[in-house]
Each structure stands twice: as C-alpha cells, then as structure tokens.
Fold this sequence. Notes:
The chain has one domain (2-81). By secondary structure, the chain is an all-alpha fold. It is globular. The mean pLDDT is 84. The chain contains three helices and no strands. It has helices at residues 2-32, 51-60, 67-81.
Amino acid sequence: MQMDTRKKVLQFTTVTLAIALQLYRFLRRLLNARFEKRIMFGSDEMVWPYEVSTGIDSIGSAPFPTPEQKRDILYNNAARFLRVNR
C-alpha cells in the first residue's frame, strides 16, 4: 500500500513539474515577444480553490520576469482591462 502511494506522489510531482516547465517556456516566449502588458493571470479553479495560490506563486517565483512584469501579469493588466481604479 505504501509503495502505491509513493508511486502516485511521484507521478503527481512529475506531472506538476512538467506543467511548470511548460508554463515557464510559454511565459518566456510571451515576454520575449513584448506581450507583458497583455498577459493576465486567471483561474477557473473551483474544485480546489486553494490551488489558485499555487498558480500565483508559480508566476511570483519565476526567475526571469522582472518585478514590474510580475505585477502587470498578476494585477495591473487586469485592473487596466477592467477599468479598476487603483
């Protein structure tokens, strides 16, 4: 039983890492194309709402966006799009 649980955890970790690497590659391509003012973080996560913070953390901990690009992706672009006063 323990081995089955370890195998599942390893599979989940591998899939999560693969998704994170794909996200970083895609994000880097968008930023290199100068789309930082057009990217908005969003989620339709309703089953595990606490996972939204995982997505936010993945943007926040990415090594290559500047702090300004991270603020744009996580807040400023959506605020401008939705015409939210700051």
